[in-house]
Specification:
The chain is built from 22 helices and no strands. It has helices at about 1-40, 45-60, 60-75, 80-95, 95-105, 115-125, 130-155, 165-170, 175-195, 195-210, 215-230, 230-235, 240-265, 265-280, 300-325, 325-335, 360-390, 395-425, 435-470, 475-500, 510-540, 540-570.
Length: about 575
């Protein structure tokens, strides 16, 4: 008995690993397409639902889709209304797994093909094409998934050899509607533990096919799984922004509402499912007496498996058909429950897109990092405006105000660089393709240059502080020339941020960035030569000129950092 339990746990682990591997291979292949698909959301409720169905059907994980959606809401790439529609579709898409298991996992011994499939997967993995390598993960994951399913079926104790197990379960099925609630809770808890409704569904189908559970109790477990699966999105949203938490709550409300109506009309709903199965030419699963004598592969066993799969599908389809028209009410409800927090100035300098952690799809995580880096660049550009204000300050008090802001911006840049780097390090490199890996490397370079821009702003504040300590001031002409230099740097910032918006799609305009850099360098040289000439001919204050030239040099250095960023986008 102990060995069977250990084998069952190991087989379950193989099933989950196979599913994750299969999903990973598909996500690496379709990651960029998924990003474009989600970004192209429209106001059409049907398209939102079908997007959720399509993505989940492809990657075989409603949890991954939901976490992905929460991340996009957190990033502002999806509105809450759009997210609710996609989540509804994801619930329908996840029913594909149940049908795959019912059709292939029980009708035929797919495990016989597992080893040959692994051989095919190995041959694909050693191919030079990255497309084939990604496909190899899918093939091997598919083989492991069904091998794990076969091992789970074999490791479940035979009730004819261990009738005491059936008597134990029979105790929990004899409380009428109370038993339905017991198995509903059991399905919820099991899904919370496994963090996969697909794995719980596979276990439910196995227990049903082996005669452990009557159809009604298996149906109750399926309802419980729909509640348990919402926990993943809520965990992802726990540290996210307000709208992301609302999206996760909407997922919970959607599934809980569905379970409530399914329980209220439980027996009518089961009769409806039984009627559909009889139309397919199989016995009514609600009328079958489930015992150990039911043979796997028989019409009775197939009717039960198809019945549970159909129940899972119809539950989510009906629920979506009811609630898709109530999306505004759902949005209003979650908005009322989760209040918006007032946004302080400090909040504007916090991570905006990736504070929920990497999303379920590694490729999409990189997309969020791209948005966060653009946000970082916009914050950095605002710091340049404080350099201008510090140069123009007319009093020590006014200068001190802007000096502190520049010091603060330097600290902000340090923190944002660290947090983005931590996020990028957490993205599983084995789950991304080579092109995306190169993007990540360039992102590390970019955030380092953006942090250096913060250092330059703080360095200018130190130069101005030393000038003030020595009682020196810039002439009006010096201030005008610094203003001109700052304007050139600001224009370079503008071109850089535009390039970041177009990053990695071959639309980066490096020529404009180079032109900006040449202008800054030429202006630096011109101003330096003019000031040296002034020192020689007009006897201007040497010490003031040193501080002036130091500011010009630091601004030119900022131009170097900026061009480095645009060049990193082209590599």
């Amino acid at each position: 008995m102990f060995f069977q339990i250990i084998t069952l746990i190991g087989a379950l682990g193989m099933f989950l690993y196979g599913m994750n591997l299969m999903s990973s291979g598909l996500q690496k292949t379709a990651g960029e397409r998924l990003r474009s698909l989600l970004a192209a959301m429209t106001s059409n409720p049907f398209k939102r639902v079908m997007t959720g169905v399509g993505i989940t059907g492809v990657i075989q994980s409603s949890s991954a889709t939901t976490v992905m959606v929460v991340g996009f809401v957190n990033a502002g790439l999806l509105t809450l209304t759009q997210a609710v529609g996609v989540i509804m579709g994801a619930n329908i898409g996840t029913t594909v797994t149940a049908w795959l298991v019912s059709w292939l996992g029980f009708k035929m011994d797919i495990s016989v093909l597992a080893v040959p499939l692994m051989a095919v997967g190995f041959l694909l993995s050693i191919a030079k094409s990255e497309k084939y390598k990604n496909l190899s993960e899918f093939v091997i994951g598919f083989a492991l998934l069904f091998l794990g399913l076969a091992l789970m079926k074999d490791s479940v104790p035979d009730l004819r050899e261990m009738p005491e197990v059936l008597s134990f379960i029979t105790k929990w099925t004899g409380y009428g509607f109370g038993s339905v609630l017991i198995f509903l809770v059991f399905g919820t808890v099991l899904t919370l533990v496994l963090q996969s409704s697909s794995a719980t569904m596979a276990l439910t189908l196995i227990m049903l096919s082996m005669g452990w559970l009557p159809f009604e109790m298996a149906a109750a477990m399926v309802l419980g799984e729909n509640i348990g699966t919402t926990i993943t999105a809520n965990i992802a949203a726990a540290v996210a922004n307000t709208n992301a938490r609302r999206a996760a709550l909407a997922h919970t409300l959607f599934n809980v509402f569905g379970v409530v109506w399914a329980l209220l009309f439980f027996h009518l709903f089961l009769q409806f499912i039984g009627w559909i199965i009889t139309l397919m030419g199989y016995p009514n699963p609600t009328e079958i007496v489930y015992t150990a004598d039911i043979q796997p592969g028989s019409d009775e066993s197939t009717a039960a498996l198809y019945g549970i799969s159909m129940l899972h599908t119809m539950f989510n389809v009906i629920n979506t058909c009811i609630l898709v028209w109530c999306t505004p009410l759902i949005v209003k409800a979650v908005t009322t429950i989760i209040k918006s927090k007032s946004r302080s100035e400090e909040d504007a300098f916090k991570l905006k897109f990736i504070n929920a952690g990497p999303v379920g799809n590694a490729e999409l995580s990189v997309g969020l990092a791209k948005s966060e880096i653009l946000h970082f660049a916009q914050i950095s550009r605002k710091g340049l405006s404080y350099v201008r204000s510090a140069v123009h300050a007319q009093s020590d008090e006014e200068f001190e105000l802007y000096r502190k802001k520049l010091v603060k911006y330097e600290e902000i840049a340090d923190r944002i660089e660290y947090e983005i780097a931590t996020f990028l390090n957490a993205v599983p490199k084995e789950s991304i393709n080579d092109a995306t890996l190169l993007q990540i490397k360039s992102m590390f370079k970019i955030i380092n240059e953006l942090e250096s821009l913060g250092d330059s702003g703080e360095a200018i504040s130190r130069i101005l502080s030393r000038r003030n300590v020595h009682g020196k001031r810039f002439t009006d002409k010096n201030v005008e020339k610094i203003d001109l230099m700052i304007s050139l740097v600001d224009n370079a910032y503008k071109v850089m941020t535009e390039n970041l918006e177009l990053a990695y799609d071959n639309s980066v305009d490096l020529r404009r960035a180079v032109d900006c850099e040449i202008e800054i360098n030429n202006m630096r040289t011109t101003l330096r030569e003019e000031e040296i000439l002034n020192i020689e001919q007009l006897n201007t204050s040497y010490q003031s000129s040193v501080y002036y030239l130091d500011v010009i040099s630091e601004l030119e250095r900022m131009g170097d950092y900026i061009i480095n960023i645009s060049e990193s986008l082209k590599r």
